[in-house]
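Format notes (please read before filing issues)

Several people have asked whether sequences and structure tokens are stored in separate files. They are not. Every record keeps both together, in the order shown below: the sequence lines, then the token lines. Line labels are part of the format and must not be stripped during preprocessing.
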Amino acid sequence: MDPKRPELGADEAIVQRVLVGERALYEVLVRRHNQRLYRAARAILRSENEVEDVMQEAYVQAFAHLSQFRAEARFSTWLTRIAVHEAFARRRRAQRTTEVEEPVAVITPEHQAGSRELAKLLERAIDALPDDFREVLVLRTLEDMSVADTAAALDIPEDTVKTRLFRARNLLREAVADSAMGAAAEAFDFQAPRCNRIAAEVMARISKGV
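Then the structure lines:
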């Protein structure tokens, strides 16, 4: 069954049921809005290390103030505003910090999958380049050969190597940009394992009254 439970109706109807005691239904709202809150927080913070913390805090704060929600606005808008305010607050605190520590990169399965997909995208784009450009790009960029060595290997003048590399990079940039824009709807996708984790953690905090 869809964890977002469309048969339960609109967000506002679920809010009313949560307010009269069906607290477990709050998880449905969490799952419905994980994607939106993730993208909103990620756009502001650009830090995977803090985004999930912001999401959790937004959900907990929203639950704590659920009785203040007014149906004049959409619940999704109200909830997103809470997340955005929390994200901005964290960014302001970080900017006021005198000692800026280098964030520790967190490598998740989602990141690894994204890296593999990016590598495949680049491979396809490189393969689509004209032969002359692809050869220069691979030797100069992927193999890190010098201009002189590349020219010698391909038996072409060094100036030709420079020209072809410049044009190859431009074509590659355009190809990758086009592919990326075609997949824009999937950008910053909040995948199922993370959705499950956030939902479980939020509900655990609510059950403890935190």
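For reference, the curators noted about this record: The chain is about 70% helix and 0% strand. Residues 98-105 have pLDDT under 50 and may be disordered.
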